[in-house]
């Protein structure tokens, strides 16, 4: 079997990440792609979040990405506090 086997359901999104980030090794280093016990690579939750919240918003800078992540976490925790 090939070293690079991808889940059919996430193949296109993994390819998008590979192109965006400059290679499969970088995607794996960031935890955006994972390999299951059968050696099949799939998009991780972090990879999907990156595509939805960073690429989807058109964020290009590191500081801007940090600020968006911080804001998202703040809104999540604020909503939890409102329920208490």
Report the end-to-end length measured between terminal Cα atoms: 52 Å
Count of discrete alpha- or pi-helical segments spanning 4 or more residues:
4
Largest sheet features: 3 strands, mixed
SSE arrangement, N to C: EHHEEHH
Rg from C-alpha positions? 15 Å
Strands in their spatial order, largest beta sheet? 1-3-2
Any idea what the shape is?
globular
Low confidence ranges? none
Compute the average pLDDT.
78
Instruction: Find the count of extended strands (DSSP E, 2+ residues).
Output: 3
Helix content range: 55-70%
How much β-strand is present in the residues? Answer: 5-15%
What structural class do helix, strand and pairing data support? Answer: mainly alpha
Write a brief structural summary.
The chain has a domain at 5-59.
Describe the overall structure.
The chain is mainly alpha-helical and 84 residues long. It has a domain at 5-59. Helix content is 60%, strand content 11%. The protein has four helices and three strands; from the N terminus they run βααββαα. The protein has helices at 11-21, 24-29, 45-55, 62-83, and strands at 5-6, 33-35, 40-43. The protein has a three-stranded mixed beta sheet. A hairpin with a 4-residue loop joins β2 (33-35) and β3 (40-43). The protein is globular and about 45 Å long.
Identify the notable features of this structure and list them briefly:
single chain; 84 residues; mainly alpha; 3-stranded mixed β-sheet; 11% strand
Give the helix/strand layout.
Layout: E1 5-6, H1 11-21, H2 24-29, E2 33-35, E3 40-43, H3 45-55, H4 62-83
Parallel strand pairs: 1-3
Antiparallel strand pairs: 2-3
